[in-house]
Amino acid sequence: MPSRQEILNAKILVVDDSPDNIELMEEILREEGYANVSSTMEPEQVCPLHREHNYDLILLDLQMPGLNGFQVMKSLKEIEKGGYLPVLALTAQPSFKIAALEAGARDFISKPFDLLEVHKRIHNMLEVRLLYKELAQYSRAQQELALHDALTGLPNRRLLEDRIETALQHANRSHAKAAIMYLDLDGFKAINDTYGHAYGDEILKMVSQRLLASSRKEDTVARLGGDEFMVVLGDIHSLADAQGPAAKLVDALVEPFFINDLTLRLSTSIGISIYPDDAESVDALISIADYALYEAKRAGKNRYCSTGTAPTGAAVKTPAKQGVPELVPHR
Ligand SMILES: Nc1nc2c(ncn2[C@@H]2O[C@H](COP(=O)(O)OP(=O)(O)OP(=O)(O)O)[C@@H](O)[C@H]2O)c(=O)[nH]1
User: Fold this and answer.
1) Which of 183, 185, 186, 189 for mutating ligand 1's site (highest number of atoms within 8 Å of CB)?
2) Which residues carry this modification: 4-aspartylphosphate (predicted)?
3) What are 94-139's pLDDT values in tens digits?
4) Using CA atoms, how far apart are residues 320 and 293, in angstroms rounded to an integer?
5) Which of 107, 113, 303, 322 has a Cα at 20 to 30 A from 138?
């Protein structure tokens, strides 16, 4: 439940065409302790103001010249699409009460004001509004958690697969290629075993930062779990466009890590697959990158390995068409 202080700090807008009514309502609210009250006599300003300030409560007079309260609520619904309209209608017309509720107002206050009723209705409405905001925030945070790795904050496998799909679609549309780089740290287990899990975790966070710092903003850097990461490069035109970035990642991780008084060293191996040269589906591209990674490990670690053409220019078989790929480790 929101605290009394949170309720008193809520943002409130009073909308009325009568300066006397505005003054009266502002005074009522101030005396109760509400600290964030503003007002307007121009109904057409309500939406722009709400867009800017995201009010917790709009006390809205229904009968105003020009734009009336019902029209204002209609426009507010556009801003709060599917959301909660924080409107408390003010009306002297008994027949408008139900109409106001039907138009989206959460509640109404009758004029002339009964002070006790005003306070209760405002308090109750703010309580619900603030709870609603808390819930919406919590739900956004849960969605984020479901798509990100809790330790590093990087996208997790679920989000990664989506990102790869998007990169492939983009490559298709723009007649370009995409690269999947599968990374597995070398010697990570020894760090855990020697210095403990907390140091291992710290290294994983630092590795994530280095991978991000060594990639383009538009690339995806994800953690698959354990000491495995993936980097997706979109909008490339050849394997050579992925080899440079792969070498950069290998170099970035070979630099020592400083944690407390310790200097820790590890390296990474990378397997690369290219869309559409190696395969066309996400799963197949990941499998081929995994296979290339295995070859990079087998060839001595601290290097990347790809299918395709060796730097010397020697053509090698591509796995999608030829079965088992011939892989080219680079150091
Ligand atoms: N600290 C920490 N360790 C983890 C986490 N997830 C997995 N691990 C550990 O990471 C290690 C990964 O094992 P390997 O990939 O075989 O270790 P490695 O020494 O890098 O082996 P190579 O890849 O052959 O060089 C295991 O010891 C796991 O227990 C984690 O979230 N935090």
Assistant:
1) 189
2) 61
3) 889 999 999 999 999 998 889 999 999 999 999 999 999 899 889 9
4) 17
5) 107
**How far apart are the CA of 226 and the centre of ligand 1, in A?**
5
User: By alpha-carbon position, which residue is closest to atom 8 of ligand 1?
Assistant: 226
Q: What is the CATH number of domain 4-145?
A: 3.40.50.2300
Phi, psi of 155 (to 5 degrees): -55, 145
Q: Does domain 157-330 have CATH number 3.30.70.270?
A: yes
Q: Rounded to a whole number, what is the distance in angstroms from the first to the last CA of the chain?
A: 59
How far apart are alpha carbons 313 and 278 in whole angstroms?
A: 18
Cis peptide before 276 (omega within 30 of 0): yes
pLDDT tens track for 256-281? 999 999 999 999 999 999 999 999 99
The residue ranges of every structural domain in the chain are: 4-145, 157-330
Q: How much is the ipTM here?
A: 0.96
Which residue's alpha carbon is at the smallest distance from atom 26 of ligand 1?
Answer: 189
Query: Please, are residues 57 and 76 in contact by the beta-carbon 8 Å criterion?
Result: no
CA-derived radius of gyration, the chain:
30
**Which residues does the annotation mark as catalytic?**
227
Q: Please, are residues 290 and 209 in contact by the beta-carbon 8 Å criterion?
A: no
Residues 83 and 320: their CA atoms lie apart, in Å, by: 49
